[in-house]
Amino acid sequence: MARIKHPSYIASSGGRMGDIVFYSFYDRQYARLYCKPVDPKTVEQKIIRKTFGDAVRSWQALSPEEQYKYNKKARRLPMTGYNLYISNYMKSI
Fold this sequence. Notes:
single chain, 4-stranded antiparallel sheet, alpha+beta
């Protein structure tokens, strides 16, 4: 992962260009190589994907106050409140 510093007239970049993916995290710009995901389509993988989808829908159903609490907890960690919630959800199943 490489950190990017744009000229002052470019606010940010995002998306994929060839084999390079541009993204931002906490107002910092980064670039990394694209790697094609593997889809084994096993029963176990399907269960994990369904659980992950349930976790995302559960996060979306939280009130803004509850989401704020997770965001506040995650400030000390190298992740967002969303990532913390999803991680906890997946570990609890």
